[in-house]
Amino acid sequence: MEFGYWLPVFGGWLRNVEDEKMDISWDYIRTLAQKSEDWGYSLSLIAELYLNDIKGEEAPSMDAWSTAAALAAVTKELEIMVAVRPTFHNPALLAKQVANLAHISSDRISLNVVASWWKTEALKYGIDFEEHDDRYARTSEWIEVIHRLWEKDHVSYEGKYYQVADNVLQPKPAKKPFLYAGGESEAARNMITSQCDGYVMHGASPEQIGEKIADMKQRREQKGLPPMKFGVAAYSIVRNNEQEVKKELERITNVEASSVSYKNYQEWLANTQLQHKPSLEDYSVSNRGLRSGLTGTPAQVQDQIAAFEKVGVDFFLLQCSPQLEEMERFSESVIGVLQ
Questions:
Q1: What is the tens place of the pLDDT at every residue in 244-290?
Q2: Domain ranges of the chain
Q3: What span, in angstroms and rounded, lies between the C-alpha atoms of 148 and 164?
Q4: Alpha helix segments (H runs only) across the chain
Q5: DSSP 8-state class, residue 163
Q6: Tens of pLDDT along 163-208?
Q7: Which CATH fold topology does 2-338 show?
């Protein structure tokens, strides 16, 4: 089992705690990433949002791509997974950027392809916002373009959304960057099993995650493609006893409908197609992380991880708060014991 984490480019993950003691700064990000390598974490996901959907639209947030380039130069082993939204990036230009990052990082760059959901943000940044299935059709074409550019030169492509003429991209990555994606709609699952290498899921129980993995494996096998990697989002709380766990859960889940993030919650529901609608309590932390159940004593959390591993999960993408302190605690009480 591998352990990854979300880089705190929004200053935290809690929608009801204004100050989580996690500076939105390069100093905090660099310190966390460098220490995480010593603590046994192998992967960091950098979300790409130009507005802050955790703390409110007017709160600061860090840019994903310049942060990724900086981290590539100051880390040694960490896989840097950068979220990318095709509607915001020309595929040929992005393919060039990623190829350069692959060389800077010695092939530690991967992408998490996101079809977008936040219409308000797109409009504020002058980006056209398309309907759900149109976004996936664009994304599929976008992936096709970058794959071709990474594989050969003198590429020409004429599609509905993108066109390139006799493109030469040099230097190419030494190996093709790994592509992850997530999504629960039929359009998303078909695209991911056809064009991506890994499937990342919102938090859910091992039983629910196992059903999704079985479905994606079957789709993949029917297309004659190699196995995928499977990851799950989770919010971690490790404490000495259940009373301490309960106290922490109460602290972080009292989101009110009047909070600055509530409007984003409503828009997210309107622009996604989910199998299970999350409650406002679920939404109190990002990506339905509490549903994964990595909350409890060290032994309880270790048992839950074993249950996920049994159904085919390869890695976790963890969130916690405050992140430096909690990631170190998780490393000592869970990662250090399992590895």
A1: 999 999 888 876 644 555 555 555 555 565 455 456 666 678 788 99
A2: 2-338
A3: 11
A4: 26-39, 64-74, 91-105, 119-124, 132-151, 186-195, 206-222, 242-252, 262-270, 298-310, 323-330, 336-338
A5: E
A6: 999 999 999 999 999 999 999 889 899 999 999 999 999 999 999 9
A7: TIM Barrel (3.20.20)
